[in-house]
Design goal:
Elements: E1 10-14, E2 18-25, E3 28-35, E4 41-44, E5 59-67, E6 70-77, E7 86-92, E8 99-106, E9 118-125, E10 128-135, E11 145-151, E12 159-160, E13 180-184, E14 189-194, E15 201-205, E16 212-213, E17 222-223, E18 231-238, E19 241-248, E20 257-263, E21 272-277, E22 284-294, E23 301-309, E24 319-325
Antiparallel strand pairs: 1-4, 2-3, 5-6, 6-7, 7-8, 9-10, 10-11, 11-12, 13-14, 14-15, 15-16, 15-17, 18-19, 19-20, 20-21, 22-23, 23-24
C-alpha cells in the first residue's frame, strides 16, 4: 500500500488507499494500480468556481474594481437603515477566494452621517484611493447625500475628506445617492453619475475631488435620465462606445433588474436598448444594482450584482453574486444568465488582449 502525491496544475483533496499489484494476463505481465474505495478526489484549478453568493453576509450594491493583481468589491452592508453605519470590503486574487476587510469607513469617522450608508464608488488617483458614498437617505432640507473619503490603501481605513457632503441638495429630482465615478480617458476628466427617485444627473469633479466644476455652458448638473431609470447608474467604455447601465423596477421586489444604452458620448443621449440582468425564478429574484469588472488585456467581463435568495422574504436580505457578461459581434450585451455556480478562477496576469 502507498499514497500517491501528484502536483502540477491540479488541486487534490486527498489520494490514498492505493493497492500496488503485479498482474499476469495471458503470459504478459504489467504493473497495476487499483484504487480502493472512493478516495481519489481532484480537479483542475481552472475548474474552480466562485459559487454564488461569492462571500457570506447580507450585502448589496457592489462596486467591483481591479487594482494591480487584485480584485476588490465594495458593497453596502444590507440591514435596516439604522444599522447601515459602516462599510466592509472584500479582496481576491482569483475571483474565487475572498478576504474580508471590516469597517473600512463608518459613522464614527463621518460625523455628519448617521445611517443609510450606501453604494460605494471607488477610484484611484495618484497614490490615493477615493471612496464616494451616500448617507442618511437624505430628503429636502435634511443633511446628507454624497460624501467623499480618502485612504492610502484600497482596504482603508478611509478618512472623511470634506467634513460635509459633496452633494446635499435635490437637483433635477434626483436624490443624491448611488454615485458612480467615471474617468474618461478621452478628455482626461472625472465625471460622476448619480441619482435615485427615477432621475440621474452627471457632474464634473474637481482635480482633488473636493468640489464640482461647471460644464462649458456654466451649468453644474446635467440630467441624463434614460427610459425606465430608477437608480444605480454605471458607465463603461468598450471599443470607443459608452455603455450606460442602470437599475429599474422596485429595489425591494423580484422585478429589480438592470438595463442599458449605448452612446457615442458620456453625456448620451442614452436610448434604452433592453434588460441584461433580471431574476430567474429557479435561481434567485431581484437581481440588480450592479457593476462590471473588465480583466485588463482581455475581452473578459464580469457583472457583479446583488440578488435575493429564493424563499427569503427579509427586506434587506440581499447577497453579492458574480457571473460572466458577454457581447455579440455587433457590440450589444447578451442577457446574463444568473447562476449558483458563479465564475471560474481567473488570476490577473495583465496579458495582452487577444485579437
Amino acid at each position: 500500500m502507498f499514497c500517491l502525491k501528484i502536483s502540477s496544475n491540479w488541486k487534490f483533496d486527498y489520494i490514498c488507499n492505493i493497492n500496488y499489484q503485479h498482474i499476469n494476463m495471458k503470459g504478459k505481465s504489467f504493473i497495476g494500480i487499483l484504487l480502493l474505495g472512493s478516495c481519489l478526489s481532484f480537479q483542475s484549478v481552472s475548474a474552480q468556481k466562485s459559487g454564488n453568493p461569492i462571500f457570506e453576509g447580507w450585502y448589496a450594491d457592489p462596486e467591483g474594481i481591479i487594482y494591480g493583481d487584485t480584485y476588490w468589491i465594495y458593497p453596502t452592508y444590507s440591514d435596516l437603515y439604522e444599522k447601515q453605519t459602516h462599510f466592509d470590503c472584500f479582496s481576491s486574487k482569483d475571483l474565487v477566494n475572498w478576504e474580508k476587510h471590516e469597517s473600512i469607513l463608518d459613522t464614527a469617522e463621518v460625523k455628519w452621517a448617521k445611517r443609510a450608508m450606501w453604494a460605494p464608488s471607488i477610484i484611484k488617483k495618484g497614490k490615493k484611493y477615493y471612496f464616494f458614498f451616500g448617507a442618511n437617505d437624505v430628503h429636502e432640507g435634511e443633511v446628507g447625500g454624497i460624501g467623499v473619503a480618502v485612504s492610502d490603501k484600497p482596504e482603508g481605513p478611509y478618512k472623511d475628506l470634506l467634513g460635509k457632503p459633496l452633494i446635499n441638495e435635490i437637483v433635477n429630482g434626483a436624490q443624491p445617492i448611488d454615485q458612480f465615478v467615471y474617468y474618461n480617458k478621452k478628455d482626461d476628466t472625472y465625471y460622476m453619475y448619480y441619482g435615485g427617485w427615477g432621475h440621474c444627473n452627471i457632474v464634473k469633479l474637481s482635480d482633488d475631488f473636493t468640489s464640482l466644476v461647471p460644464f462649458e455652458d456654466g451649468t453644474i448638473y446635467k440630467e441624463v435620465t434614460p427610459e425606465n431609470y430608477v437608480e444605480g447608474p454605471f458607465m463603461m467604455e468598450r471599443n470607443g462606445k459608452y455603455y450606460f447601465m442602470w437599475s429599474e423596477g422596485g429595489w425591494g421586489g423580484p422585478d429589480y433588474s438592470v438595463a442599458y444604452a449605448i452612446a457615442d458620448s458620456p453625456f448620451g443621449p442614452f436610448k434604452r436598448i433592453g434588460k441584461i440582468l433580471q431574476q430567474d425564478p429557479n435561481v434567485a429574484t431581484g437581481a440588480g444594482h450592479h457593476s462590471v469588472i473588465h480583466v485588463p488585456g482581455t475581452d473578459d467581463y464580469y457583472i457583479v450584482y446583488h440578488r435575493r435568495p429564493l424563499g427569503d422574504t427579509g427586506r434587506d436580505h440581499r447577497v453579492v453574486c458574480i457571473d460572466r457578461m458577454y457581447f455579440d459581434e455587433d457590440g450589444y450585451i447578451l442577457p446574463v444568465k444568473i447562476t449558483h455556480e458563479g465564475v471560474s478562477a481567473q488570476p490577473i496576469t495583465h496579458k495582452k488582449r487577444k485579437k
